[in-house]
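Because discrete structure vocabularies remain unfamiliar, it helps to consider an illustrative case, giving the amino acid sequence and backbone structure tokens:
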Amino acid sequence: MNISSKRLCSVALASLLMLGCATDPVERCRSATSSDAIQNCAKDSNEDARKGVALNESLQSDTLRELAKDPQWGVRSAVARNPNAPADLLQQLADDSSTYAAYVRASVAENPHTPEKLLRKLASDPGLWVRDAVAKNTRTGAEILRKLAKDPDGRVRSDVYLNPNLPADLIPKLAEDSDVSVRETVAEGRHTPEEFLRKLADDPDALVRYHVYVNDVAPKELREKLGRDPGVQEWVKTEIETRQYNARGVTGSSPVSVPPSYNSPSPVSPPMCIGHGVGCP
């Protein structure tokens, strides 16, 4: 194939991709601007079109209210995610009790404009995804986060730790959580105080210690010490092998050679591109 043919194929492919985006009902209706186009999407028999327009941030509240009555939970969930949804409409959707209602309530819980009073209610929701969405919401305040820090599911407690509104007094509690996945989250947190990184560097679980090791805000001498930890070295090797496997799966390329330092019992320098290290692509 000559250069001109290659260019022609590239142009044709780009045109097809653009056409695909233009004909996708979700994207088409989500980006619609004219009132006629919006109304057509809202009345479209295609559920995806109605989902797309329900996410459209230029939508007026009256159209959102109509879509909130849609028989399909996916459309109601999209309305609940729209940042322009009025507070009273979010309250209505938070009381959704139909089939798959938890998805709708979870969308209310993740909306950045959901009132705190409603987030407090959803923090006690029986649905795990709903409580987890509250834990992730940057509007969730300290009082609610303290409640969720006692949630029976470790995923919720982990997301409490990642919330930028995390009260400082919860750090010690979560750093000693009985669920190893929560301690891993604390160990890899860039906002974790040095005091707790040092404690977690002695955690009985090697994966927790590994997360301290790859955390580039941990003191250099602490990371160097962990580089000599056999359990941490095993996780470093596992991470490298996983990346090699994934690279072969995507590109079909030959395995990437493992640096000699990872195959020897000698100290391992903190890898700057393993986990969340500086310099990762």
